[in-house]
Specification:
The chain has 257 residues and is α/β, with parallel strands linked by helices. The protein has one domain (9-251): Alpha-Beta Barrel (TIM Barrel). It is 33% helix and 23% strand. The protein has nine helices and ten strands.
Amino acid sequence: MAKGLPGADSSIPVTSQVEGEGLIALATNHFGAVPAFWGRYFTSTTSNTPAEYHHVLEGPPLSASGIRVLPVARQTRNVNGTTEQGATDGAANATDLLASFGASAMVSQGNVFYIFLDVEGDPTTDSPSLSAAYYTGWAQAVTATSTSATNGQVTIRPCIYATQGDGVTWAALTQAMASGADCGGAWMARYLTSGCSEFPDWNDEFVTPRSGMPQNCPILAWQFAGNCLSGSIDCSQTNPALDPNETLLKFLMLPPG
């Protein structure tokens, strides 16, 4: 079976030291290759926690390693909310992404970029499943805010991160898309084990929700392990059935060096 390219995400900066070694080096040693992308959180320009992407600090080492940033829109407690709540959050996410990289730097790499809505679907942690209303408002605002702020030079397309078994979320996404909402693709989470695992072969049956995926929202990546390397990163791979550059990587920013 085929394998995709490795990818990582973390809720701590990529400049962090874990077990006395830099996070990028640790991930590279674990995968046996440099991660093709690194997921980091983008909430708003006023968010300043370690979980948020810090461009001045993290951009240079990511750029030096050739790792693209996969933006994750993080407001997990809100994702079962109203259209209006989704629109408010989407505007804040898009503004944060544009402010982090700058429109001119983004235009130098392309005109369309992805951002993934973080849906945890875990009521025990006050992180609900998605509502169609919220996704509709969020998706529209992400795109409208980016095109308006850049005079049409940059369009941010909405995508989604969610667990394979969260049927409520996939039903809500299907409903939203049937009403016209956009989805560039999905980053699917289903862990093989708790903690680190060896890099697995891609498994369509294991990764795809039982209800299937909405049309025109392909599964672009699979998060197959969490809390790896002393809990510092989650591990993913791109879908080997798709061209990783044409379907995902070219829509992610390589931070300016």
